[in-house]
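Example complex used in Figure S2.
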Amino acid sequence: KAGVTQTPRYLIKTRGQQVTLSCSPISGHRSVSWYQQTPGQGLQFLFEYFSETQRNKGNFPGRFSGRQFSNSRSEMNVSTLELGDSALYLCASSSQGELDTIYFGEGSWLTVV
Amino acid sequence: QKEVEQDPGPLSVPEGAIVSLNCTYSNSAFQYFMWYRQYSRKGPELLMYTYSSGNKEDGRFTAQVDKSSKYISLFIRDSQPSDSATYLCATKHRSEGGGTSYGKLTFGQGTILTVHP
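Predicted assembly (230 residues):
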């Protein structure tokens, strides 16, 4: 069974640009959540999607957005990139059970210059 | 103050040592507790998952939860160089009213562990 797949793995963007990151969850998983990981703040929750609906949102500015498609694949977008957006962006998927394990992908490394 | 506090270390131990990693949390709504291991430039990998006070053992790993004092621990016995990684504690709310949030975890800062031969 394939794991959580994130693309691209590495990317470099310029301040002011926008970026879209993609996530394919484990087959059968309908919940997809996104996290930002930085050395200073650690792992922080961005948002969660379930059946194409945003169920939960973390404390991030509106420049961070996401969506989920009918096949459960998800994308997140960051507009007007700032230097502080440089981070590892992690996608996680789980099934619809409360006790179900949350599995993480390898992440997308974003560098903003 | 962060909802989940974890000593970032770094922690350096000799091979074969018993390692103790700890977190405290402040929110009583946290009911599920996890330990993830993250190797450099990789995603977090689940090690242990528990939702009741007490101990849970899996091979060389033991997770301990004390809900009364809001304290969670991970013990690694007979530590190996391959255990060198960042260890992250994570917690999750119990969902109310039919369940609305399955994927929101609150993490500790992570402890960097090095096991040297």
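The first strand of chain A starts at residue 5 and ends at 7. The mean pLDDT of chain A is 94.
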